[in-house]
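Q: For a teaching session next week I want to show students how multiple molecules come together into a single three-dimensional assembly. I've collected the sequence lines for a complex. Could you give me the predicted structure tokens for the whole thing so I can convert them for display?
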Amino acid sequence: MKLSLVISTSDAAFDALAFKGDLENGMKMAKNIGYDAVEIAVRDPKVVDPEKINSLKKEIGLDISAIGTGQAYLAEKFSLTSEDEKLRSGAIERLKEHVELSSNIGGLVIIGLIRGMVGSRKKENVVDMFVEGVREVAEYAKRFGVKLVIEPLNRYESDFLNTADETAQIIESISMDNVGLLLDTFHMNIEERNIEGSIRKHKDILMHFHVADSNRWAPGYGHIDFRSIFKTLFEIGYDGYISVECMPLPGGTEFSSKKAYEYLSKILNGR
Ligand code: LER
Ligand code: MN
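A: Of course. Below is the structure for the complete assembly, covering every listed component.
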């Protein structure tokens, strides 16, 4: 298992230069700490230069573990289940662009907030729209050898797909081998009855793993039992990334990223 760090970048559309600056600084910081990869959020792949990212990857010696897509929902309301046809087809087209970016720079494409919300609608109808949308993107992704991961989010962030079971059921109905599950300890701590049990139950589709402690501080500063979780991940033979996605606490981005790395690598090395 390799360690990755989610790095924050400013909105690429409005300030492409700042995005590259942030990216370069974030990648250098992650490398200096010891991480193997970074995970980035990209609102619009059209304004990202894959050649530049690839040269940074090479120069710094770091991989891209995953690409987050939620900014397209937050800033532009693109959603795979929007009632507005333009926003729904826009989400599909945008995700296909994320797929192309991924085929260029690497990383799984994350389906988080871009799933949209159920609201007052009938859940079955929303599920059907979602399955259809993800399938279209997944078929496109298959041509590029790219994988998509769907992430259950806790109830305070979304009213659609909160648990590993619900999400796994949808992944089963999509039934494509390039669509898998992303589990995040912060969300699991709120929604799962038993974190280790859910990991074990869905081991066959688990493709990516986010870690933050119970308070979304760096692992080690809350009450999640990472020793037990990592033992479970070892036992199921998980070989994807462990990606640190926490608030810059304690002590700011660099300090918390360093503390997270030290704490997790100690556990991974059995100390
Ligand atoms: C994204 O990976 C995530 O966990 C969300 O909570 C971010 O909104
Ligand atoms: Mn997450």
